[in-house]
Amino acid sequence: MGKKVKATEEQLAYAKILDMGMKIGLIALVITFIVYLTGIFVPHIPVNDLPKYWGMSAHGYLEAAGINSGWSWLGMLGKGDFLNFTGIAFLAGVTLLCYTRIIPIFFRKKDAVYGVIAIMEILVLALAASGILKAGGH
Amino acid sequence: MKRYQDTELFRKAAHNGGIREIAIRPINVMLNLFQHLIKSIGYETLKRVQGDKEVDFSNASNAFSPAGHKIAIFFFALCLFHLSPDSAIASAVASSPELIPPEAAMQWWIWPLILFVVTFLLGIVAVLGGVGGGVLFVPIISGFFPFHLDFVRGAGLLVALAGALAAGPGLLKKGMADLRLALPVALIASSCAIAGAMIGLALPANFVQTALGATILGIVAILLIAKKSEYPEVKQADALSTSLRLNGIYYEASTGQEVNWKIHRTPQGLATFIIVGVMAGMFGLGAGWANVPVLNLMMGAPLKVSVATSKFLLSITDTSAAWIYINNGAVLPMMVVPSIIGIMLGSIVGVRILAKTKPAAIRYMVIGLLLFAGMRALLKGLGI
Question: Which of A78, B28, B142, B354 is buried deepest, with most CB atoms within 10 A?
Fold first, then answer.
């Protein structure tokens, strides 16, 4: 990169959190998947039964497997298959962490517009992650 | 058939009865072929990375280099496999759990293994063809695997997300992706992606499949027709982009110069991202195929800034949609993890061999593959 071109402070801060979060999430994903495959924790759905479920709709799968939607997976982390959701949820949550990091920078720089945009984005992502929004049923 | 004569598998097939032999033993054929492809591509990739002078690369300028040749063989075999009646039966049985005989449960690992290998190859092809992994993943996996479309879309979003998370830090640090340009766009796209995801999960699968097929065919048209402008002419920035300070400078390594850029048609561009967000959430495609043309052609951002910002943007847009799929049960770890690992490993290999291949011809092959996958999705949705 040229001498004069520098990424902004908020851009570098975002990148740093994103990099760290992505690596942690991927490592967690691989480790929990190995745990799942080796059967250290008994899965909620036996692996041999997976073909019965992966052809169903999401709604049908939840009903057939007796799983609640939303964050119910959090109470099932003792199951080998649901342990994988720690890595998945972490990867899906990294962006929230990044936004949290850059909001103070925007307001310190008196860039209120972008500070508000970042806050609104956190609200959108939090809404998506909350589990309040239910869909499916076909 | 001459092209395939050097493949042991096809020699055996020809000896035993030709194409029919392939059609009646699809799983064994695919596993053997995958093994052959992986070994050969891996060997050739290592050779090229190490710069082995003994290897003749005189045909490297030919798009159908040995690696590309074998990628083409694989996808041809995939199409052939799909056309076999057993493939259709397998799909029907997999979608009707009560029809699965007990002995089939013993082979649960076959599909995730094939998924890993396929996504590995998709990762390579996506880099070489300059398309996103998400846009390849959903139509191909939904068309040729027994997984329900809900799970395929959930996995597709997480695959695209993982790729964007991996690429984002580097692009931001180098100043190629612009955070200020991305944030307002991301706010709109991510909000609409939530809506798209909810709509997609609520609609019947065959309707979504049909719409997916039509969308993929539209993407093929965009890839074929849409021009790209390295440095669009932006005579004057509009009021919105000026007030938001949507401009910047990036360092163009190829010329050694710093490029000042600004954008225009900001309200129109932001409005277009409403549609982009909905489609990304509904189909689980990722949205790079739409982000780049809108940023580059409509809003006037330089091509490299558009591509880099688009890649970063996916990490935000896909996050919101992915959460809807996660919270509504449309994520199966046995699908998601092999897919993410496969496509990321494939991307690494693709980047390493990119310099030695001719991306243009690979891109046409990818477009052909998308065309086939789109037709397959359309016909599947229509019940044909």
Answer: B142
